[in-house]
Amino acid sequence: MISKIATTTALRAGARTFTTRATSGARTPSRFPLAFGAAAAVGAASLYMLPSVQLEGTPTMAGELSTTSERSFIMIKPDGVSRQLVGKIIDRFESRGYKLVAIKSVVPSADLTRQHYADLANKPFFGELLKYLTCGTPVIAMVWEGKDVIRQGRNMVGATNPAAALPGTIRGDYAVTIGRNMIHASDSFESATKEIGLWFNKQELAQYMSSGWAMTMEDN
Ligand code: DAT
Ligand code: MG
Q1: Whole-angstrom Cα distance, residue 35 to residue 49?
Q2: Which pLDDT tens digit goes with each residue over 72-81?
Q3: Can you list the domains of the chain with their CATH numbers?
Q4: Which atom of ligand 1 is nearest to the CA of 154?
Q5: Which of 9, 74, 100, 214 fits a 20 to 30 Å CA distance from 87?
């Protein structure tokens, strides 16, 4: 299996330099993590079972920032489900090249919603937000994986207030009011770590290699 090493200092500095190497056996000069060389060695049938990246150090539930293992928590809110726009939203992330590693339909409890939006507990709109999320219509909770998915996920979702969201973004194309803005996306690595851990168990996060992964994620 291959490991990717990024030093803490490099990460702190936002640097993207790292090395890849096989944990046992010869080193590889390839910057793109793994899979295909390793898969060839273990047989094609195993290709789909390989994790996209095996990290050293302590990856969180959100993988490792700025690597192909980075993960974001994306949630289609009750209005998106009710308006039957789930497929269209998933299509945007799939088409972009991100990999779906977990998905479930949930009618969230008040407790879960309070934990998810803990930072907004003192806002005047919090009560209405809580009522909306727990109205009984499910949300679609998802984890998407890929390089820069947290930042790009936010870009794809658009501004919090759909009135300010650019056309081409999800909120800019499908939503009108801030109270029904359709979708949530983690706003930082720390939020992604917290949110993925809140909505999913580690066992629910799939590790597999999608067929177009190298063609999408490789960065010469
Ligand atoms: P975002 O969802 O873009 O991360 P946020 O974290 O500031 O935005 O707020 C979470 C949700 O709370 C947001 O998607 C919709 C609701 N919200 C935020 N500001 C609001 C406001 N001024 N009035 C009503 N609802 C608001
Ligand atoms: Mg937010």
Answers
A1: 10
A2: 999 999 999 9
A3: 2-49 (no CATH), 71-217 (3.30.70.141)
A4: 3
A5: 214
